[in-house]
Design brief:
It is a single chain. This protein has 404 residues and is of the alpha/beta class. It folds into two domains: 37-258, Type I PLP-dependent aspartate aminotransferase-like (Major domain) (Aspartate Aminotransferase, domain 2), CATH 3.40.640.10; 259-401, Aspartate Aminotransferase, domain 1. The chain has helices at 4-9, 37-42, 59-72, 83-94, 109-121, 134-140, 163-172, 228-241, 247-256, 260-278, 298-305, 330-339, 387-401, and strands at 76-80, 100-104, 125-129, 145-151, 176-180, 203-207, 221-225, 284-288, 319-325, 344-345, 355-359, 375-381. The chain has a seven-stranded mixed β-sheet, with helices on both faces. A five-stranded mixed β-sheet has the order 8-9-12-11-10, covered by helices on one side. The chain is globular. Bound molecules: pyridoxal-5'-phosphate. The site of pyridoxal-5'-phosphate has 13 residues, from helix 4.
Length: 404
Amino acid sequence: MTAQSTGLIHHPYSPPDGFDAPQPGVFKASTVIFPNVAAMRTRDWKSKSGYTYGLHGTPTTFVLEERIAALEGGLQCVLVPSGLAAIANVALALLKSGDEVLIPDSAYGPNRALAEGELAAFGITHQIYNSMNPADLAARIGEKTKLVWLEAAGSVTMEFPDLIEQVRIAKARGVICALDNTWGAGLAFNAFDLDGQGTGVDVSVHALTKYPSGGGDVLMGSVTTRNEALHLKIKLTHMRLGLGVGANDVEAILRALPSIGLRYRAQDHAGRSLARWCAEQPQFAQVLHPALAGSPGHAHWQQVCSLAESAGQGAAAGLFSVMVDERYTPQQVDAFCDALKFFKLGFSWGGPISLVMPYELNHMRDAWPGYLARGTLVRFSLGLEDASDLQADLTQALGRALPM
Ligand SMILES: *Cc1c(COP(=O)(O)O)cnc(C)c1O
């Protein structure tokens, strides 16, 4: 007779196969149990043919990997604990001492911080290129260049680069292109086929924290590829760095994923209508939204974002920035942000709550881009509130903090 404690752990019951439900199950494991030693010795942790250890994948993570790969138009995907971890996973997998990485001046800030910190310490150099001038990118590619980062639209400043030309330039020189595709989310354009003729990036990273999560409550990232050898390189680094994700977080994203298209389009719709309204307010010297005519890179946005299914309107994230006219002080702009009721002050985006954040562009750029008006930049990200309530909120805060 085995003891009760042992019996509870080694209980022989297993439920019948064949269970099916709208959501995949949540499988949690560090240990994966092998049927015998031969299976343990022969199982390949890198393939999805079986399971070896929680860090190498479970049915739950495999399902999300496959769905993100499909969303992005890729073939392989690895999940990591944050969008920033996805950026780091790519850099550490593809760069070694003596190499150089090129980063756009509009990049998500921590990408550059990683290059200035860890990459520099490892003997990897970087250059910042002008995201709106492909000739500048071309001129900076040299013998040492092994990776070019792309981002569209640019973080905070929302300019839309000529992605197709940038990819052509890098590919012609044999350099790997990695795109931070958090803004496009796999919905605004296909990163692996930007022009409908196969011009595409090699790697797409995505902060699943934003639209795939949709809740403002989960951090996760992904690295998607269409090349088995490249995927394997990234997967090996992923394993050596131990970048596993928790099953409950994966489940939260799997639950939100079916509605990502609806949410993205709703937030896009509200974002465009508010951006157009902001363009009529005299307190704002400029509105930065790639889908608005006159916004920096609007023609490039049209070129790649009108291919996606979007009723001829093109697709865009529910994000835009305004340049508050320079006649207002940064303190007045802070007061405007504080006066908003529905727009909460917080980083990140893609969740149900609308967010606002003032940015000091002087601290983010080496030089003020010529296509930006002078002033203080404020970024809005649209949640799922009614757009007319949000417009009323902007109206009252403008009246209180930025009098004409
Ligand atoms: C938020 C964000 C990231 C980082 O994602 P985290 O999950 O917060 O680390 C990377 N790139 C872009 C463009 C982002 O907006």
